[in-house]
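fyi for ur records
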Amino acid sequence: MNNTKVLILAGGSGREMDPLTKGDPKAFLRIIGKSVISHVVSRVIASGYKEIYIVSDRPNKMEKEVEGYRRLAKIEVIEQRGHGVEAALLSARHRMKLDPEERFLLVYGDILVSPSAYISTYMASLEEGFEGAMLAVPEMPLPSHGIVEVDELGRIVAVRQASQAQSGKVEATYISGGIYVLDRSIFDYTEELGDIVACI
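which gave:
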């Protein structure tokens, strides 16, 4: 059993997918009879993670969505205070009890990946000299995506916002796959810099 904690960010308005979302976060959209967050939680559990924290601005609705998984893992729903990814992350800061060097998995609750992606991202963070890891996928970015620049060995050298909207050209590169391995210093950096992309 993996004792690594998992923090899932599952808030937001889902405006970019209206009218499907009806103002709810994308995590509540239904795919094959289950909400996206149900798919994410089941895949995290299938990967061996048993302590899960979910940040949501609809905590009552979230509680109902994940109730059936509580027999398989410890799940705590945290109410999001404020708007945006940074506010979601900081909402969990004092609820997750992390040791000084302890790493945790940060997962975006509206991105579906195979269970092996959670395991391989965490295993990559254990390589000597690595402070963390992130899942990056080859994809043409949207202006809202974080661009991931990698070197010839596949190591991340920079993360930045997509500049497609500014330059008018499309960049062929990697984007964030929504899984990160971080330690608790991310909370301090997020509070100080106010931008998750700058922190990573």
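Residues 2-130+178-199 form a domain with the Spore Coat Polysaccharide Biosynthesis Protein SpsA; Chain A fold (CATH 3.90.550.10). thats all i got for now
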